[in-house]
């Protein structure tokens, strides 16, 4: 079984990845390797932050690893929150406050088009690889649903049936999810490396 560090302590992200990949890989979290400090995310791009986090783990802990950074880009907010997705409403990273700020910012606007983009950076055997997944959609006029996390209660995937991500089961969300698509590209790549 291949062991890789997933450079996150977000239990929701770890659960999504494990549910998608199954038993083929053993993913270690940052907590599993004793990394308790906040990994810097100081670049102006999602892909830059994904690279920065993966490099931090490799340089400080020596593990092959992958990291991801995800952004919600809303056309009616000029691409915001983008790289500031996690802390759009403040450093406490409150999903409730973030969603409220998005909905308030879009009040009275007709263009509610949006997309999630995920970049995964893999460092394996001294080389870096980058994988992208995206999901187009729109922002609802209010929060709907109890599942998922983050912006799931306000994001309606274009390929879906009108429900928000938070109104879907995990399996249903993975059919459209930006993170699942990026992870599928990572899985395909790892499959070619382990043959």
Written overview of the protein:
There is one protein chain. Helix 1 (11-21) crosses helix 5 (178-193). The radius of gyration is 17 Å and the shape is globular. It has five helices and seven strands. The protein has 195 residues and is α/β, with parallel strands linked by helices. Helices cover 30% and strands 25% of the residues. The protein has a single domain (2-193), classed as Maf protein (Alpha-Beta Complex).
In short:
With 195 residues, the protein is an alpha/beta fold. It contains five helices and seven strands, in the order βαβαββαβββαα. The longest helix has 16 residues.
Q: What fold name goes in the CATH topology slot?
A: Maf protein
* Range of helix content: 25-40%
What is the string of SSEs from the N terminus onward? EHEHEEHEEEHH
The portion of residues forming beta strands comes to 25-35%
List the domain count as a whole number.
Answer: 1
Largest sheet: 7 strands, mixed
Low-confidence stretches: none
Count of distinct strands: 7
What quaternary form is this?
A: single chain
Q: Which structural class is indicated by helix and strand composition?
A: alpha/beta
